[in-house]
Predict the 3D structure of the following.
Amino acid sequence: MNASSTSFLRILDLGKQAYGPILQRQEQMVEERKAGRILDTLLLVEHDPVYTLGRNAKSGNIVASDDELRRMGIEVVKSK
């Protein structure tokens, strides 16, 4: 790193939150960062229980039934 350059990192502690709204917020923040409207930002967050399914994952990979997941309070989210 160049001795004359200065970097700043914004840290946001968001506590415990659901996965979906935070994912949307992260996607929005990526666009804001690309446009230079915000600083580099580190989000600290604990998500409610969630299984995320990537591009090649199938819901059949989860052995628990939808009812079991609901009873346990676990959300299933397909990622982009």
About this structure: The chain has a mean pLDDT of 89. The longest strand covers residues 9-17. The CA atoms of residues 49 and 74 lie 5 Å apart. The two ends are 34 Å apart (CA to CA).
